[in-house]
Give the backbone structure.
Amino acid sequence: MNLTKGLEQAVCIITLLATQDKKFPIASHIINQRLEGASPSYVKKIIRKLVVNGLVTSVSGSNGGFLLAKKPEDVNLLEVVEALEGPIVTYPNTGMINQVFSDMGPTANQGEKVLTEVFRQADEQYTNLLRQQTVAHLIYESLGRREIPVINWNEVIES
């Protein structure tokens, strides 16, 4: 499974929203500016996926924009990954093992089951690790302190 660059952009968007002053939604053009080089239409698609999956709230109106739908402590990386990429399934199991080793009878079928189970367990460990990593924890680790700064990104002047 290859994660797309959209996931990195989604993590940046979620982090912006996690640090945003909750009184002021972040305007979409501000998010586009901060994700310099990203296509505005692609950013809209990412935000839409985050909204549909309940991670981000869209606020309409002249002072509208986007807010994090949950507390940063309640958003984990698994939710972000699955919002962008769908459920984690790393082994495609196209039935090729049974095809290639069809003359081996039940052994081929058992081999397919064994390999599928190994990857299922790996996916489970991977998803459990991502589930444990909250946005708040990642911000704490990045900043080296147990608080999330409150910023109004709509007013931050770029230097």
Observations:
- DSSP finds seven helices and two strands in the chain.
- Strands lie at 56-59, 65-68.
- The first helix runs from residue 5 to 19.
- The CA atoms of residues 90 and 122 lie 8 Å apart.
